[in-house]
Structures are given as C-alpha cells and as structure tokens.
Design a protein that fits this description.
194 residues, mainly alpha, 8 helices, 0% strand
C-alpha cells in the first residue's frame, strides 16, 4: 500500500520530534500555499497573512514533539492557523478600538485577498461583478470571527463539517449552526443594501 500524504506528514512530524530539524521543510512545502491562502481569507491582508503563516509553522514546529495523531496533520495545522488568525483579529479589534481608525490593510489600501474568477462577458458586467464581490467581501469581514472562520473553511477551503469541527475544536452541529448564521447574515445584509 502506497503511503498517503498524511502518512508522510506524520512521518515528518515524528522525524522532527526526534531531532531532525531539516525534515520540517517538507511539511512547509506541502502546506504553505494552503495556509497562506487560509490566513489571507481570514485576515484580509496579504502581508499579514504571510507573516501569520510563518508564525503558524513556527508554532507547529515547536509542538511537533507533543502532537498526538488524532486526526489529519493538515487539520491540526488549520486549527493552529485559525486560532492564530482569530487571536490576531481580536488584537486588531482592540487596537482599532483604542485608535478609532477604520479597517485598511497594512499598506493602507483595500486589497482583495480572494477574488472570484473573472469570466464576465463585458467590462460593465465585470465591473458590476467586482463591485458585488467587494461588497460581499466586506460583509464577510464584518462577520464575528467564529462565523467567518467556519464560512471560509467551508465555502472557500472546501472542508467538510467533520474536518471543520476537528480544526476548530467544536461539534459538527456547532459548525452547521455557525455556517447557517453566517450565511443568513450575508443574505440579510445583501437584501438591505438592495
């Protein structure tokens, strides 16, 4: 039987726990793009997302020896990433509260961390689609962090309810409930804007 990606990830973690520091690079190569994309979708800032992903890998490296194989390695990495990003969002809210400034990216512009595919037939339709997406992206950014995390993991990362529950350390029914509330908030907000 050929080893799966998760079997290889587990072997890497075992080697790292045994002192083989160089092996961790394999894990980074396999999961870096996914984790940066996840952090970008949660934080809505590309530069901050890259920093967050590096910090997530550093945390994972430090915890490699204490990791207990209960699930898949990538869901363990996702859990670290989601928790790290939610903590960053909480700190950002505290800073905003005290500085009374609006939300902008670190570069001071309004970058789009994840854009929909641009297949509109003409410029006017493309512009309308982009404006709708920007409004939706802002609404996603305004969701409570727990709802935003579930929405991103389900709709953009394609994780199952079971995987999301494992990643966030909540029940599948809590995943379903948070996703329902997030989707309802988005629909209600879009209806009031129309």
């Amino acid at each position: 039987m050929k080893p799966t990606g998760d079997d290889r990830d587990r072997a890497v973690l075992e080697r790292v726990a045994g002192g083989d520091v160089e092996s961790f690079g394999v894990l980074v190569e396999r999961h870096e793009r996914r984790l940066v994309r996840l952090c970008q979708r949660l934080l809505q800032d590309p530069e901050e997302a890259r920093d967050a992903a590096q910090e997530v890998f550093l945390k994972a490296f430090r915890k490699a020896g204490s990791w207990k194989p209960q699930g898949q390695v990538y869901t363990w990495l996702y859990r670290i990433a989601v928790n790290h990003c939610l903590n960053r969002l909480r700190r950002r809210k505290i800073v905003q509260l005290f500085s009374l400034t609006g939300r902008k990216s670190s570069a001071g512009d309004d970058e789009t961390p994840f854009d929909p595919a641009d297949e509109a037939p003409d410029p006017a339709a493309r512009l309308a689609a982009r404006e709708r997406w920007q409004a939706t992206r802002k609404l996603i950014g305004d969701l409570p962090p727990g709802q935003r995390a579930v929405l991103v993991l389900a709709k953009f990362e394609g994780l199952s309810y079971r995987q999301i529950a494992e990643t966030l350390g909540i029940t599948e029914s809590a995943v379903e409930s948070r996703l329902f509330r997030a989707m309802r908030r988005l629909v209600e907000a879009q209806e009031t804007e129309s």
